[in-house]
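Is this the right way to post structure tokens for a design question? Let me know if I should format differently. Anyway, here goes:
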């Protein structure tokens, strides 16, 4: 725990930490765009079967001509997937027809489709005709992207514990910039999905390493504030996405717009300081000392460069250095009792938070509101939600905040089941409220996880439990298919998962104002102390209860409470 003292000596949360956190947080403005991009690049415009030689001449004043070629579906709107085999000109007239339109022969869209370009000039749906029999490929592209995020969480988590946070973060910026930009040049759907998968991997690398670099360079008391402020960048990024998508409305241009800035992040990321904690624990104490001296100078504490020597640094972290000599793997997260309990609980919380979040956020067109406006509303609700989360994290602690946010999101999701579909504004308002609670839950879980896992295996742990979040984000779109069986079934599943995770969150240990653990032994020691304390309290309560019962028994038998001699009654 000595490294926390060294941070205080070199300035605590000083100028270096402010610049460091700001530079690490700025890319978060575009991370939301990566995760929610499918709402716009895979948006489904209004469409109908292409009519050769006639559709091109149609305009708003002659749109009625479509009646001769496109049948109406059950909701009395033009069918999206069929057309009449022969033109039915008589359907245009106002005079009643002796022919029943439902009996006329129809066929699939053999000539392709015509798309309305009001809401989207171009999307991957209109580019590769991902409609009708191919409509499942729209959600498949998002599932593949989330599969890349999942793979990246597994790979980059272990690599950053081995090669360092800074190196892997720089590489992740570069990979995202290059592959994300090349995605705009995709000539086919298959190539597009490959690029999205690889981009998703780099997104995990950016998120995981940025979180660790922040947590490992800031004092204990500043972690809550930094974690919440950092999440505001992600929130504001959702609103930026709406603006970028509305101004461009072309999926290729949108990809370039949100990926090209990562070249800038790549170039300035060389300024970052590698985690001194990680350097010491990997036998590179001299490099760690240089970084500490650099931090001291930037924070206006140059005199500390003489006081903090290699011997001082190593003496402060002697216990951690000895522990780090053993190689840690993902299995170490489950070997010991306390680490196993933490990991199992976090897996459920991460899965449910992501599952509910993307279940609400990834299908904006279903709300019947302008999709760009809906994205802004979904982003704006995060500001008050995260401010409330900040207050709760600071005063109530991580555990209560995490559990409460999940249970509240579940209650809102369940409430929406009983709201009639024609009350669209009410349903949308409840969905926005649920989105706010799940966003607050995400804010808490990133901070909570970084504080629960020790330095020697923090990135591996972050990668391990966040894989469950990626599985949740992959499963969320698939659950929507169950609407065909029972309309309320997806909401029941989303809400039920959040309830389960909410109660499980209360089983995690509190980390408010507690220094970061550096070794697995630190975590287990805290767990054992808590177990002993609970055991002693239980034994004390049992003894007190036994004494009370014995006293009551003595009174009923006429014995003095402190002796076996019968009380002489006068």
């Amino acid at each position: 725990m000595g490294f926390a003292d060294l941070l205080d000596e070199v300035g605590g949360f000083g100028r270096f930490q402010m610049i460091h956190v700001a530079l690490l947080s700025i890319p978060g403005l575009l991370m939301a765009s990566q995760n929610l991009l499918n709402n716009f690049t895979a948006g489904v415009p209004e469409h109908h079967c292409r009519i050769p030689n006639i559709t091109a001449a149609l305009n708003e004043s002659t749109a009625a001509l479509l009646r001769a070629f496109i049948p109406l579906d059950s909701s009395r709107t033009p069918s999206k997937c069929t057309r009449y085999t022969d033109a039915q000109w008589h359907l245009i007239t106002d005079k009643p027809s002796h022919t029943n339109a439902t009996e006329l022969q129809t066929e699939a869209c053999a000539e392709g489709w015509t798309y309305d370009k009001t809401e989207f000039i171009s999307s991957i749906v209109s580019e590769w005709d991902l409609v009708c029999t191919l409509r499942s490929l729209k959600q498949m592209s998002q599932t593949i992207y989330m599969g890349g995020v999942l793979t990246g969480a597994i790979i980059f988590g272990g690599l950053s514990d081995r090669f360092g946070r800074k190196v892997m973060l720089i590489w992740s910026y570069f990979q995202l910039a290059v592959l994300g930009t090349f995605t705009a040049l995709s000539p086919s759907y298959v190539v597009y999905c490959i690029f999205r998968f690889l981009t998703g991997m780099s997104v995990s690398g950016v998120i995981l390493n940025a979180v660790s670099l922040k947590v490992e360079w800031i004092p204990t008391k500043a972690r809550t504030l930094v974690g919440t402020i950092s999440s505001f960048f992600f929130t504001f990024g959702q609103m930026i996405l709406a603006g970028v998508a509305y101004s461009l409305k072309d999926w290729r241009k949108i990809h370039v717009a949100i990926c090209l800035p990562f070249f800038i992040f790549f170039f300035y990321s060389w300024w970052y300081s590698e985690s001194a904690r990680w350097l010491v624990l990997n036998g590179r104490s001299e490099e760690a000392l240089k970084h500490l001296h650099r931090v001291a100078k930037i924070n206006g504490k140059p005199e500390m460069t003489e006081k903090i020597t290699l011997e001082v640094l190593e003496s402060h972290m002697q216990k951690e250095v000895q522990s780090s000599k053993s190689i840690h793997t993902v299995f170490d997260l489950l070997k010991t009792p306390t680490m196993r309990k933490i990991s199992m609980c976090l897996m459920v919380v991460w899965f449910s938070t992501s599952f509910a979040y993307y279940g609400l956020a990834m299908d904006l067109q279903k709300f019947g509101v302008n999709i760009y406006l809906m994205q802004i509303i979904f982003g704006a609700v995060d500001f008050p939600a995260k401010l409330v989360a900040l207050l709760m994290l600071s005063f109530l602690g991580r555990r209560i905040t995490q559990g409460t946010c999940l249970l509240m999101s579940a209650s809102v999701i369940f409430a929406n089941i009983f709201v009639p579909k024609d009350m669209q504004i009410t349903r949308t308002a409840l969905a926005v409220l649920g989105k706010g609670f799940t966003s607050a839950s995400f804010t808490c879980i990133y901070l909570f996880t970084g504080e629960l896992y020790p330095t020697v295996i923090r990135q591996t742990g972050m990668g391990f439990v966040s894989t469950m979040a990626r599985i949740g984000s992959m499963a969320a779109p698939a659950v929507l298919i169950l609407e065909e069986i029972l309309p309320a079934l997806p909401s029941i599943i989303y809400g039920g998962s959040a309830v389960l995770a909410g109660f499980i969150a209360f089983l995690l240990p509190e980390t408010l104002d507690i220094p970061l653990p550096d070794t697995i032994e630190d975590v287990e020691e805290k767990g054992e102390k808590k177990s002993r304390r609970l055991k002693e309290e239980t034994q004390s309560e049992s003894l007190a209860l036994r004494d009370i019962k014995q006293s009551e028994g003595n009174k009923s038998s006429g014995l003095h409470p402190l002796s076996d001699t019968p009380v002489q009654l006068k």
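Format looks fine. Someone answered above. Worth noting: Residues 561-565 have pLDDT under 50 and may be disordered. The longest strand covers residues 47-49.
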